[in-house]
Design a protein that fits this description.
By secondary structure, the chain is α/β, with parallel strands linked by helices. The chain folds into three domains: 30-113, Immunoglobulins (Immunoglobulin-like); 115-293, Rossmann fold, CATH 3.40.50; 299-487, no CATH class. The chain has helices at 2-26, 127-139, 157-168, 187-198, 219-225, 227-233, 246-251, 255-264, 284-293, 299-322, 330-342, 344-364, 372-396, 403-412, 415-426, 428-449, 452-460, 467-476, 483-488, 490-498; strands at residues 37-39, 44-47, 56-64, 76-79, 85-97, 100-113, 115-121, 142-147, 178-182, 210-214, 237-241, 269-272. A six-stranded mixed β-sheet has the order 8-7-9-10-11-12, sandwiched between helices. Strands 1-6-5-3 form a four-stranded mixed β-sheet, with no helix packed on it. The chain has a two-stranded antiparallel ribbon with strand order 2-4. Helix 3 (157-168) crosses helix 4, helix 12 crosses helix 15 (415-426) and helix 15 (415-426) packs antiparallel against helix 16 (428-449).
Length: 499
């Protein structure tokens, strides 16, 4: 009897919960669709047709703010603001549901502006700085729309996050007289170019706007690199300047007055337009770099390719002059690229897991007595599955990697073979020393090539990479002792001096 009562109680509870869920699903909900911002004198249309759960004999009444006189009695409300500010429009919907007259309400806030400026800020820009610029814009009567992507854990994810944000918020650029890109180097401009190429119809207004690049780097280098994206985006102009120019942009009434304000305040700026984007035909690498940037190749990929000769030269100097022992030149170069793409902390974590997995797989296969090549193939297979698992964990934690990064990461797994080979031939000590010196050399390379001014300079003047050939020729003729050998053979030097 008790069991039957218990089951009956569970059944009644389940029916009650189901009935409550059904009431929630059937409850009417008022929804207003329409723009959140509009210029003074422009007409907007707000639509309540997306409202859910409505019954029979539905009536609509639209009001402005707390007004009592309806401005519309249809499913749509047409409104033309005559002065800037923030207005609230609300709709009251009356409908019959199961013979009961119900009234629901929704409201929408619309920003009315005379001047509008878009500020696309990188996730590293503090919120308090952005709020200060919002306040300065409001005092100047300017509507400042701030777009800021979510923070990314890896360097190569920054451009992807900006691109996704621009794709989702493409309508935000409509009506703006300027788009300010406050990002690292050319990443923001590159992401904007990709978004324009993917959906040109959504970014028609960009052709009449001025793009302003905010940077702490060399203006000339960034302006030169911006020439390629300019030919694709085709804005009115691109201005490269400092962050001190943001407030004068708000206070100036037009772009002409803004330029005059910059000159009066002695704020550096450069203009990129049709007269300055020409590339001389003998700068072949510059032409190739700009062609790649304007045909879908990300700036990060180009940067990695241009940094590889520099990384190889630094490693050659370490081996020939200093005398450190790494796993060849190719392996530390790939490890450096992976650290550069992922960030050294995440890169070290991936590397540690790859080495542990490779060693554990090799220990398990000892009893199988397999030939060397099939054994290495199995190890690389397990390592690849480990990388796949790590990528899944990273995706769960919100860390996503691009295809370029994953490719570099898979190549980095070849370090496992070098480690296991040295361990089998020379023992644990030499294997650990080899890995340690390889990682140390890679970290030094990353520290050097991550310098912002260096990346900007190489991206703007890729011909400078040819200097590494001359440097390697000098290193190839090096015949003196390495620095490590002076410490290794110091006893021999003492005996020679005594004799």
């Amino acid at each position: 009897m008790k069991r039957q009562l218990f089951l009956l109680g569970i059944l009644l509870c389940a029916q009650t919960v189901q009935a409550q869920e059904l009431d929630v699903q059937q409850a009417p909900v008022a929804i207003i669709a329409g723009p959140e911002e509009v210029a003074v004198g422009r007409t907007i249309v707000l639509d309540a047709s997306a409202s859910r759960g409505l019954g029979e004999k539905t009536e609509y009444k639209w009001y402005r703010g707390q007004g009592t006189i309806p401005i519309s009695r249809s499913v749509e409300a047409v409104f033309t603001p005559d002065k800037p500010g923030i207005i609230t429009l609300r709709v009251e919907i009356s409908t019959n549901i199961n013979g009961v007259r119900r009234t629901i309400e929704a409201q929408k806030t619309v920003t009315v502006y005379e001047r509008k400026i878009i500020l696309l800020a990188e996730s590293t820009i503090p919120e308090d700085k952005l709020n200060l610029h919002r306040m300065a814009a409001a005092e100047a009567g300017v509507y400042l729309r701030v777009l800021q992507p979510a923070e990314q854990a890896i360097p190569l994810g920054i451009e992807e996050s900006i691109y996704a944000l621009l794709s989702d918020e493409s309508s935000a650029l409509n009506g703006a007289e300027a788009v300010v890109l406050w990002t690292d180097g050319i990443k923001g401009l590159q992401a904007l170019m990709r978004a324009v190429e993917a959906s040109p119809d959504k970014f028609e207004s960009i052709h009449n706007q001025t793009i302003i690049l905010i940077t702490d780097r060399s203006l000339g280098s960034l302006a030169r690199t911006a020439g390629g994206p300019f030919t694709v985006i085709k804005p009115d102009q691109i201005m490269v300047t400092r962050k001190e120019a943001i407030n004068p942009l708000m206070s100036a009434g037009s772009m002409e007055l803004f330029v005059e304000e910059l000159r009066q305040r002695d704020i550096d700026f450069l203009v990129v337009d049709e007269n300055t984007t020409g590339i001389r035909p003998w700068n072949l690498l510059s032409s190739l770099t700009n062609y790649m940037l304007t045909h879908g190749v990300s700036s990060q990929t180009v940067t990695l390719l241009l940094m590889l000769p520099l990384i190889a030269t630094i490693l050659a100097f370490f081996k020939q002059v200093i005398g450190i022992t790494t796993f060849g030149l190719y392996t530390p170069s790939i490890v450096s690229l992976s650290f550069l793409a992922l960030g050294w902390k995440i890169g070290l974590l991936f590397l540690l897991f790859i080495l542990i997995t490779g060693y554990a797989t090799r220990q398990i296969m000892k009893r199988w007595r397999l030939l060397y090549i099939p054994k290495v193939a199995i190890i690389l297979t397990v390592v690849s599955l480990t990388v796949l698992l790590l990528l899944g964990i990273g995706a769960f934690m919100g860390i996503t990697l691009s295809g370029d990064t994953i490719f570099v990461l898979l190549i980095m797994s070849t370090l496992t073979e070098s480690f296991l080979t040295v361990k089998a031939e020379e023992g644990w000590k030499n294997a650990v020393i080899g890995v340690g010196e390889t990682v140390l050399a890679a970290l030094v390379c990353v520290f050097i090539v991550q310098l912002a001014f260096l990346q900007s300079l190489i991206l703007a003047y890729p011909e400078l990479i040819l200097i590494t050939i001359v440097m390697n020729i000098f290193l190839g003729k090096w015949t003196g002792l390495r620095l490590v050998e002076y410490f290794r053979f110091q006893e021999v030097f003492k005996h020679l001096q005594e004799e």
